[in-house]
Amino acid sequence: MSQIMGLVFRTAVRGTSPFGYRRDRRLGAFGDQSHTGCMCNLYRMRASVDELRQMFGAFDGDRSNLGPRDEIYPGQKAPVLRLIDGTLTLDEIKWGVPPPVSASRPVTNVRNLSSPFWRPMLTNPQQRCLVPWTQFCEWTGPKGSKRKLWFERTDAGVSAFAGLWRNTSEGPRMAFLTTEANDTVGAIHPKAMPVILEADSHERWLTGDYDVAAGLARPFDDSRMVTIDES
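The structure corresponding to this sequence follows.
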């Protein structure tokens, strides 16, 4: 998601990803946000129900509509996992939380955790959720000829963003947290990256107090991420 100055690709192919794409760990680039104006606003969720169970454990909920999602954009429904009456439950929630009065469009990424708008949601564990993903995207290249670069974990086929959700007059809506970019993502988008949860932090995210939840907002380990150039 960036306007690149001096983009240098240093190929370091490390086999193929779980989804069949080339991996390139070292992409020398600097960039700003995408045409959508904030990060991250495109991701994939290609995991099967069995793969979700392996990562998140047993869960309830309707699985009939859970097929591969090659591109999930703001305004679309996306799979989430949340605790309902103490049971982890699969649901689909539209991505993009109605904004404060001063904003112009739904909010998809949450960075300022202490803001009066987001803090009440983060304080309430019942308004937190896991947002499964397999790859997320940033745009790169000059204006008019941007292309997609994808990021994924090397140690897990599916993972979770740290999500927040709330009920609205038009139904539930969700967004997910962002934090300082690590070097891998920062080479393309230096401003931020999604908050990616470790498997052993899922329960803490869904049940912990504000300080516990906010403490999970940190960059993901560079050594376990790769960049995928499909061009």
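Confidence is low (pLDDT under 50) at residues 1-38.
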